[in-house]
Amino acid sequence: MSAPALPETITPVNVGRELLMPALLLALAAYLSYGMLTMQVPDSVAFPGPRFFPLLITIGLVALTILDIADIFRRAARYRQHTAAQTDQVELAYTAPIMVSAAEPTKALDHRSLAWVTLGFLFFALTLPYTGWVIGAGLLFWCVARGFGATRPIFSLVVGLTVSSFAYIMFDMILGLSLPSGILGGSF
Question: What pTM, to 2 d.p., does this model score?
């Protein structure tokens, strides 16, 4: 008889590792909040103003981080309940306390995926003035998609260029916030 499938859980040992990303996201939200509070904005600026979008991003970051933290602790509690139930079953079956470890094996770090994402961000940061927003962000999207395991590179590139073009239009043409245009500078 095989044991029932363990629902998605997290071992207590991994809780600290799992909380690293939410901690970084909260630090980023705090940095954005500090930037918004110390920003010098003239009184003549109309709504939405330069504080509006950072405020939306900060609220979104905090909300998603709270949900992520709640999920981490929910999975840890589920693990404790599952292992306690397993231990009780083993004790009843053998009439002697036997501790059963249901720890999941840790997954190895995927260096190739990490390299795609990290080098993509580095390339984006170093070449943004030359490639411009549309091409740079499109290539960044493609690199991150490859890092996450996308199997259709042309499709990822087209989606990345489309999303980056939309972002360029939103920020540059609608909000009046200039983004680097790079080699496409004369086209827009």
Answer: 0.53
Show pLDDT as tens, one digit a residue, over the chain (188 residues): 455 555 565 666 677 788 888 999 999 999 999 988 898 888 887 777 777 888 888 999 999 999 999 998 888 888 777 676 665 555 555 555 555 555 556 677 788 999 999 999 999 999 999 999 999 999 999 999 999 999 999 999 999 999 999 999 888 777 777 888 888 776 55
| 27: amino acid identity, one letter | A
